[in-house]
Amino acid sequence: MPEGRTGRALIGSLSRVIDQDVLERVLATAVRTGADFAEVYAEDKRSTSVGLDDGRIEQVTSGRDRGAGIRVVKGDTTGFAHTADLTEAGLREAAEAAAAAASQGGGVARTVALTRGPERVVSPVAQYPDEVRKADKVALLLRMDDAARSAGGSIVQVSAGYGDSHKHMLVANTDGVFVTDRQVRTLIRVTAVADGDTGMQTGSQSAGQTMGFELFQQIDVDALARDAARIALTKLNARPAPSGALPVVIKQGSGGVLFHEACGHGLEADLVAKGGSVYRGKQGELVASPLVTLVDDGTMTGEWGAIAYDDEGHAGQYNVLIQDGVLTDYMWDYLRARNEGHGYSGNGRRQSYQHLPMVRMTNTYVLNGTEEPDDIVRATDYGVYVAKLGGGSVNTASGDFVFGMTEAYLIENGEITEPLRESNLIGNGPAVLRDIDLLGNDFAMGNPGTCGKDGQGVPVGDGQPTLRVKSMTIGGTAA
Amino acid sequence: MSGSEQLQEIADRIVAQARPGEQVEAFVSRDHETDIRVYEGQVEHFFSAQSEGIGIRVIRDGRTGFAYAGTLDQAAIAEVLAEARDNVEFGTRDEWAGLAEPDGVEVVEQPLWNEELAAYATDHKIQLAKDLEQLTLGIDPRVRVDDSNYSDVAVELAVATTTGIRRNGRENGCYVSVSTLADDGDETQTGFGFSVGRSPQEFDLAKAAREAADRATRLLGATKPASKRVTVVLDPYVTAMFLGIISSTLNGEAVAKGRSLFKDRLGDSVANPLVTLVDDPTNPLAYTATDLDGEGLAARRNVLIDGGVLQGFVHNSYSARRVGTRSTGNAVRGGFKGTPGVGCLALQLQPGTRDQAALVADVDDGVLIQSVQGLHSGVNPISGDFSVGASGLVISGGTVGAPIREFTIASTLQRMLLDVVEIGGDVDWLPMRAAGVSLVIRDITLSGA
User: Which domain holds residue B398?
Assistant: First the structure.
């Protein structure tokens, strides 16, 4: 290996670490006590992260996570155990623990035959992170620090982070599924703090793709940093956001989180099954403005939520959830698909081998409409233009959700005018979907996100064209 | 040899490999968790897992490198040390970089390990989750249970450094929780209840069930209020979340890097004189009571705001060195995958004397805030902007009335501390880094219809 390069021990393919006949024997062990289904999910992940703050590279961190989670399902009970020991003995011990957890009764011997699924490439990688010098990763952050600080004397602080991960995963189950995949993700983020007469303001930007270091041939990190600084500086002159219900125009690629929260979670079959979703029993019904076609798409090459296979070994797919306002389908994992006789949708995901899979989104987005984005603003007398949203959260049972606007402006007489201070927007999912009255033709994907559910985080993407919601409540302080 | 002594040996062995001019810290931990979920009287999932790992920090010439692995396999540990050393090359030289050094502060022992829990039978754990589901369903016919859970975790850890810190210990705890749904026609609302303890004997299942049913049913029929300025009474649970945000403005690292809105305010009046805020992990009543901080120094009591006056910030050894003071024993670390940051460990507002009903009786036009949503998206602890989604009950003429939802409450953190009207006497030691207590704040903007 050339001097100064990282990754002393490159990750081996997991299927070379764990033989197929070992997997077959471990799965047979897992269902020996009469279980219906067993699954082995193994991963070997190396990650690098670099943190810059206060003008210094504070630390480079190297991480290694390697292990297997074994799930055993008997009737409606799931047993789960995980181990960092990938030898046959270690896997068998975990299989027995999971089987014992799922079942107390005896059963019959069963053999398991696996058929290796095809290799599937959704997001090709040109430059693996292990093959890039750490110094090159560090240099990106130092450049962003310079770029953000040179945007203006009021920029008083900059922090930035770089992260990459290279994961091999393997899934095998008693239905005969046997697939392997490798996932490479690369992320960069920057936050600038500006200080002025009215206190401090912040601006953040990030970019992340399911690809290698070639990401930085596609994006300009200096521009990203300058943009974060611009947001912070702009907000120094911001006035308090309005308080109350107003029309809201959301810029292309900045409001996908609206759909993620307003309806995405409510279309997850596990929440639907227990009656914890406002969208239960609404298939075939008009649940949104007829302008809206909503898709969850695991196959979107390079996007942050892209997957060749989900974490249950089923291929990532393009799934239409809402077509012209009509609810067409939910998203599914193994358990819900099995229980309801539905096909797999490639939405069974998990944070790591230490977690159980559940229904999760991948890349969730709204398809283009026909309006020119400028016309949408011009058609709005008085309202709020949201150029950047922060995070959000939803109560799927009531449909109530919030999300934060981190860059927003007032619209007056059809023109974008003054910047606004940060605040939350609040709305009810079904109501907001119906209230979308203008949809632009300028579709764009947004920033990379981490979706949290039941304590697990997974990478997701979202996107939408510029659009207008007739009325949403803005949680500011100005009368 | 106990489990944590074994981990100590591993940490000691790493530290012994330090080269001249190197500072080395090894943090080793192992935890075992059980997680049982019951639905409709059946075990929906049973999760039992042990995980372990090591994080190694190396500092040389003011440069820091770090690496971790989720295994204690010998070969992997050697690789972690080599990676951490390699990473040192890429850090920027920082004159304040360095590990904590023993400071002579006495450790206040805490009862962190419970043998009864360690020996508790699996069947009993399952039964607790089943019982909680049944109790909850029995309270109100409109209530359904989404899931009922029992969880416990046992952690052993050890830390060693070339600067002479050498500590190990273990801790366990358990909780039950239940998620509820309540239906009325087309409308569905949700709730939750929980009970925590060092051992299952400390659980109050009836209270958890009652709270879960109450949280879900109390919002049925709730309407969206009109926008106006009001006085709010925060439920203890909401106050604890609010204090969690305030704590990030008192973080010594944020102060050192010029990122705290209180950075130049030491000795100033920053809150109503009623406000005295203390971080005291040595109080055994606190859920997050602990004897050691994340760098292995003794956890200790720190007064942050006294009678409305800003008295101090919390520090780990790095942030303290930067601003020329001593660590306050507030290094926090999320496990072996990271290096210690700075944070409050067990915050508490000095309580008043009156209960929530008495506080409400003094409010003419206001809202009792029972839950908030969007703290991570609508609050900026650097600018101080505060805007969160909320639900609760209307207060009119000193009496609690109809439920309201789908509105926001907004102000700034700076204003809210000054606008405190009264602090209740109803301290609730919640499973969070801050204790709950009812809190009255005036001049809050409510945004609704």
Answer: 228-242+351-447
- Split at pLDDT 50, 70, 90, the class of A34 is confident
Decide which of A189, A209, A236 is a domain's last residue: A236
B62-118 tens-digit pLDDT: 999 999 999 998 999 999 999 999 999 999 999 999 999 999 999 999 999 999 999
What is the pLDDT, as a whole number, of residue B66? Answer: 98
Show residues of chain B in contact with A402, CB under 8 Å. 373-374, 377-378, 388-389, 408
Selecting from B42, B68, B446 the residue whose C-beta is nearest the C-beta of A77 gives B42
Q: Is residue B65 part of a domain?
A: yes
Clarify whether residues A99 and A160 are in a common domain.
yes
**A424–B380 CB contact, under 8 Å:** no
Interface membership of A236 toward B (CB under 8 Å): no
Q: Tell me, what's the ipTM?
A: 0.89
Q: What is the pLDDT of residues B6-16, one digit of tens each?
A: 999 999 999 99
- B151 and B232 within one domain: no
Q: Do B447 and A426 touch (CB under 8 A)?
A: yes
Q: For residue A12, is pLDDT > 80?
A: no
Residues A222 and A309 in one domain: no
**Does B235 share its domain with B142?**
no
For residue A341 the two structure tokens come to: 């006789």
User: What pLDDT is attached to residue A4?
Assistant: 32
The closest CB to that of A423, out of B48, B338, B387, belongs to B387
Q: Confidence class of residue A33 from pLDDT cuts 50, 70 and 90?
A: confident
CB contact under 8 A, A75 and B42: yes
| A157 interfaces chain B, CB cutoff of 8 Å | yes
Q: Do A475 and B409 touch (CB under 8 A)?
A: yes
Domain membership of residue A61 (yes or no) is yes
Contact: A275, B181; criterion CB under 8 Å:
yes
* CB contact residues (below 8 A), chain A span 115-144, against chain B: 134-135, 138
**Within-domain flag for A388:** yes
* Pair A251, A389 in one domain: yes
Of B47, B73, B389, the CB nearest to A426: B389
In terms of domains, do B65 and B196 share one?
yes
In a domain, A413, yes or no: yes
**CB–CB of B408 and A80 under 8 A?**
no
User: Per-residue pLDDT tens for B225-237?
Assistant: 999 999 999 999 9
Nearest CA in chain A to B70: A65
Q: Do A78 and B49 touch (CB under 8 A)?
A: no
Q: Does A200 touch chain B (CB under 8 A)?
A: yes
Residue B61 belongs to a domain:
yes
| A contacts of B64 (beta carbons < 8 Å) | 58-59
A187 and A300 together in one domain: no
pLDDT in tens, A322-379: 999 999 999 999 999 999 999 999 999 999 999 999 999 999 999 999 999 999 999 9
Q: Is residue A6 part of a domain?
A: no
The answer to whether residue B311 is domain-embedded is: no
- What is the distance of C-alpha A85 from the center of its chain? 29
CB contact (8 A) between residue B51 and residue A391: no
Instruction: Let me know whether B169 and B233 are in one domain.
Output: no
Q: From A184, A219, A236, give the residue that closes a domain.
A: A236
Query: Cα B198 from chain centroid?
Result: 17
Is B342 inside any structural domain?
A: no
Q: Say yes or no: A431 contacts chain B, CB-CB below 8 A.
A: no
